[in-house]
Every structure is written in C-alpha cells, then in structure tokens.
Amino acid sequence: MKITYQQNDELPEDDIRVNIVSKSRTIQVERLLNYLTKFTKSTETNIPVKTDDQFLIIKPADLLMVEVNQRELTFYTVNRVITTTGKLKDIQDRLNDPKFIQVSRHAIINIDYLQSVENGFSGTMVAKLSYHVKTSISRKYVPVIKENLGL
C-alpha cells in the first residue's frame, strides 16, 4: 500500500478528500472503506450514565466493555463497574469508533484492551480483556474479531 498526501489550497479549511485507487475492490479495500466511514462518524465524546443516585461520565478511552442482560447495562471501565438500564444498541451508536466492536448480542468490547481470544463451548470463543474482564464471543461474530485482528 502506498500512502501519499497532496495539498490543495482551493479546498475549504475543514474539507478532507480521500481517494482510494486499486485494481479491484478487494477485502483490504473494503476494510479501509469501512474504517474511514467509521472514522468520519467517530466523535470521542464522553458517555453520561445515570445510576440510581448520580450521573457519571465515562470516557471512551477508559471503557473496556459494555454488556447487557435484559435491560441492565454494565459498563466495565479501568476503574470500576457501573450498572444502569438501557439498550446496547444506543451505546453502540454512541461509541461509533472502530476500536469498539460487537462480539455478541449482549457485549461490545474495546479492542485496545483485548489480551487474548480462546476457544469456549459450542463453537463460541472467550475474549479476555485487561483487568480480568471476560466475555463470550458468539459464532456469528468470530469473523468480525478475526477481521479486526487482521487474521
């Protein structure tokens, strides 16, 4: 892959244009397009969480994983575990960042904290994250993990 930069003084200050040139639309091109699409939507904003007695602010950089059990959301951060109610889909939309990937119907992990992936039961896998946090990866999401790890 060859990466180049070209200055264009005619473009507005906040305008960036990306042109991908390839002989064909390969898997690598698709991955790059997906990454750039997520990157343009990515806004590293804090996540406000309402617990029973207070509002907390979670920095995405400190977030290891989010799990849902029915309507109970659990946020695993580097400092603590926070429980509230809500939908995983809402958090996933808010965490529109390529480093946050869904690994099952009930969990999103931060790939920056992924330490290992091991075989589990019935074709599932287990993601082991920093700070002794684990979650299962359902078979449907194994290809997503492999793609994100470059396997």
UniProtKB/TrEMBL annotation:
Q: Which residues form the signal peptide?
A: none
Q: Where is the HTH LytTR-type domain?
A: 47-151
Q: Which domain of life is it from?
A: Bacteria
InterPro entries the UniProt entry points to: LytR-like, LytTR_DNA-bd_dom
State the Gene Ontology terms under molecular function.
DNA binding; phosphorelay response regulator activity
Can you say what this protein is called?
LytTR family transcriptional regulator
What's the source species for this entry?
Limosilactobacillus agrestis
